[in-house]
């Protein structure tokens, strides 16, 4: 499977909104001096958990969603 096919499957599985949140999370981390890769979030449980916690605390509040998810 190509990288693009893999990415397309991730979009289909996670949804575009989650992919956008991951992108914003990566930008947030870079602005605070931390650099990780998109693949770290997707394939490492510990990094996914950090992203998920950030999403609940920061991203969902910023975009008017409750902390229980989308």
Summary?
The protein is mainly alpha-helical.
Mean residue pLDDT: 88
Question: How many strand units?
Answer: 0
Q: Using only CA atoms, what is the Rg? A: 12 Å
Biggest pleated sheet: none
How far apart, in Å, are the first and last alpha carbons? Answer: 30 Å
Instruction: Kindly state the percentage of residues in helix.
Output: over 70%
Strand content: under 5%
Summarize the helix and strand pattern as letters. HHHH
In the predicted model, the low-confidence regions spanning at least 5 consecutive residues are none
Structural class: mainly alpha
- Please count the helical segments: 4
- Multimeric state of these chains? single chain
Shape: globular
Main attributes of the structure:
70 residues; mainly alpha
Describe this entry's structure for a reader.
The N and C termini lie far apart (30 Å). The protein has helices at 3-14, 16-31, 38-43, 45-62. Helix 1 (3-14) crosses helix 2 and helix 2 packs across helix 4. 74% of the residues lie in helices and 0% in strands. The model has no long low-confidence stretch (mean pLDDT 88). With 70 residues, the protein is an all-alpha fold. The chain has 4 helices and no strands.
Give the SSE layout:
Elements: H1 3-14, H2 16-31, H3 38-43, H4 45-62
Helix pairs in contact: 1-2, 2-4
């Amino acid at each position: 499977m190509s990288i693009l096919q893999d990415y397309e499957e991730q979009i289909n599985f996670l949804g575009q909104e989650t992919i956008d949140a991951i992108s914003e999370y990566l930008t947030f981390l870079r602005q605070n001096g931390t650099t990780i890769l998109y693949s770290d979030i997707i394939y490492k449980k510990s990094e996914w958990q950090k992203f998920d916690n950030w999403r609940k605390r920061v991203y969902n509040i910023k975009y008017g969603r409750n902390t229980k998810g989308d």
